[in-house]
Sequence to fold (345 residues):
Amino acid sequence: MLHRSLAAAFIAIAVVALAPVGAAAQSAGAETPRTAWGAPDLQGVWDFRSLTPLERPADLGDKAFLTEEEAAELEQAELQRNENLLTRERQDVEAGGNVDRREDGSPGFYNNFWLDRGTQTVGDRRTSLIVDPPNGRVPPMTAAAAERAADLARERQGVDNHAPTPGGWIEDLGADGLQLRCITGFNSGPPMTPGGYNQNVQLFQTPDQIVLLNEMNHNFRVIPLDGTPQTGIPQWTGESRGYWDGDTLVVETSNFLRETSFQRGRTTKHFHLTERFTRVSQSTLSYEATVNDPTVWQEPWTYEIPMQWNEQPLYEYACHEGNYGLTNILAGARAQEAAAESSEQ
Fold:
């Protein structure tokens, strides 16, 4: 299980920034903060939590925006839910089944204190983070990708989210294998998406490089801005190269080793990601991601998250369970498979 990271908040081990950011303290309405060399200053810790879902809920149909009242009700309901889960009587549960979420929306065998989904929708009250296509939904998969997904669903029928696919976990890591093996965090992607906890990214800048350091799994990407060509060596988080489009940092990433943790491992080595970072105010960094994997989706699609300035430092995310526990995890999975085969005979 990965839900242990916020315990590090009590240790308070800070990641030291290359340079402090004073921009957030400037008055509202000021021009885009600049570095000493004149580039837009994007440095700092940015929080990408959001109550707004990635996809527009199907029951909202063509409704692109919530009213002020609807957004307020949604936010108040989340606050009340958190309060109810915090103050209710103790409940004991057993391991097994879906340990991440129960019928009332609470986590499995540990409490809601450890989750940090956020309590606000995006500022313009969109009904989805997806801005293209206009219906706010992930486009349909290709026929081949849909068939692969169906095959995987059949193979994993009755298998817990965090368990290996029967017979697998070497090449086939399972739907959540990258997370459990602590290879990538489930919200760090790339691309980054709101989810669970530790939803912060720290940006560092020099004239020739940008560094993205995600709090979850301490994943980082060093992104050249000087035109350095790709090495051609496939990597779990791909190879990223950046450039400035006016005051917007554009990061193009390709050359992925295979899937990432995005969309539960649905992308392939053919994935091409375009990310755009724009400082839209002293306290807001717009993050836009265009997802393009022609072997998975019938068309590219784009979502946008208004990341919020976070005055707190990053904390250590100590993800090691799936590394040190690999022998026991595989032994337990093989024992379950043998028991299933025995019961069928």
Observations:
- Strands lie at 44-47, 130-132, 200-205, 209-214, 220-224, 239-245, 248-254, 272-279, 284-292, 301-310.
